[in-house]
């Protein structure tokens, strides 16, 4: 695991740290070719410079965010924001369903919107895959 991501996880409460560590382990295992770093103060994984998935500590939960998640056709993911992102929020590590997460990560690899160039395109998203 990226040391800065582990530092981020270690700053969380025990229960949130457990969620973060499990999410990071599963994401790293399934997106082993992805670049992983702290981006806008949160752990994020990138493929070819495009943000794919990340998580962040919110007030009462840990939010797992898929930048292209609204295109996954997954009822457990909730729409987030005005672009194509979707999320799942965890309050305990027992809520992590590894089969769901692996399926979402596979879709994240296969279904991508071009967030890397969103500023250049003045907020217009184009589908990459």
From TrEMBL:
Species per Swiss-Prot/TrEMBL record: Flavobacterium saccharophilum
Superkingdom in the source lineage: Bacteria
Domain YdhG-like: 17-108
Pfam families: DUF1801
SUPFAM superfamilies in the record: YdhG-like
Identification of the protein by name: YdhG-like domain-containing protein
InterPro entries for this protein: YdhG-like (IPR014922)
């Amino acid at each position: 695991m990226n040391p800065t991501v582990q530092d981020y996880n270690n700053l969380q409460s025990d229960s949130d740290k457990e969620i973060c560590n499990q999410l990071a382990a599963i994401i790293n295992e399934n997106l082993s070719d992805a670049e992983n770093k702290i981006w806008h103060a949160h752990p994020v994984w990138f493929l070819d410079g495009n943000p794919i998935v990340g998580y962040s500590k919110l007030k009462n939960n840990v939010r797992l965010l898929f930048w292209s998640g609204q295109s996954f056709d997954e009822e457990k993911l909730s729409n987030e924001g005005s672009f194509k992102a979707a999320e799942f929020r965890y309050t305990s590590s027992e809520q992590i369903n590894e089969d769901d997460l692996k399926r979402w990560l596979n879709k994240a690899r296969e279904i991508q919107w071009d967030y890397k160039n969103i500023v250049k395109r003045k907020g217009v998203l184009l589908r990459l895959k």
